Amino acid sequence: MDVTEILEAHKAQFKPITVEKLVPLDFDLSLLAGFDTNALDDKRLKGTKEAYLKEMTRDNVQLVVNGIFELPVKTSDHGILAELPDRTTVLPREKPLPKEKPMTRWEKFAQTKGIQNRKRERMVWDDDRQEYVPRWGYKGGAKDGTQDWLIEVPNSVDPMTDMYQAKREEKKERVAKNAKRQKRNEEEGAAATMAGKKDVRDLKKDELQSAIAASRTATASMGKFDKALRNEQKVKGVTHQFSSNIGDAKAEKNSSMDILNKIVGKDAKVDVNKAVRMHARDSAKKNFSKSNDKKSDKKFNKKQRK
């Protein structure tokens, strides 16, 4: 049985892996990219655009894959891997290079004196426990003394005092004090944020300035003869603008007409419901006062009869 025709038909379904180009592609296999500089076929581009672009894309991808298979390989736990070369294409930066930060006074001093920062290790050896413990924080170097097997009693303390209990009470007070400080800092930070300030320091500075301004006007002369402080800011008061008594009669007439038009003019807005409520309230007051007058007259007449 001759299966040559069947094999040829099956082979014809797949395109060959060899692709010929008039101008070879420029590869940057580090980015898994290839750049085709060949001219496009205008006739095929105008006639069968989609098919032409798919065929050209397939050929270029095949060339990139062929270039990857030509690279040296190495074996690892994940299988056989290709060693990519160094990058040849330089991509532009999205943003400019950051400026160098100026050195602080301490950095300049350390540079002139040759001081180098040495990072201390977090874990240190504890001779009492015979183990490594953190230098700071929980179970760290800030020992509370409650784990010591012997605590010396000072001369100023009663000899019968339980020093372990005293250490525990001292630690409780210290923890409560730190919690109180943390809560105060959070409240001050929230107040500064609500006031639109950068931090608590700016908020307290403004509060101090307002307190100084209020104290200046607390004297009998309203701060007129008080000595000004150094670098003290002037308090900006509220300025009122008054029109002159002698002026243009026409302008005064126009302003009066504007006020009148706002009240009873065409643009005036009258709340009917509010007017009805006010009228009902006034009438109720009048009726109540009349009824009280009649009751008082009746009482007065009864007393005269007696």
Automatic annotation (TrEMBL):
BP GO annotations: endonucleolytic cleavage in ITS1 to separate SSU-rRNA from 5.8S rRNA and LSU-rRNA from tricistronic rRNA transcript (SSU-rRNA, 5.8S rRNA, LSU-rRNA); ribosomal large subunit biogenesis
Keyword Glycoprotein in annotation: no
Keywords, alphabetical: Nucleus, Ribosome biogenesis
Summary of the function given for this chain in its UniProt record: Involved in ribosomal large subunit assembly.
Entry's family note: Belongs to the RRS1 family.
InterPro entries attached to this UniProt entry: Ribosom_reg
Disordered: annotated span: 169-197, 279-306
Primary localisation category: nucleus
Annotated localization: Nucleus
GO cellular component: a single term: nucleolus
One Pfam assignment: RRS1
Protein name: Ribosome biogenesis regulatory protein
Basic and acidic residues bias locations: 279-299
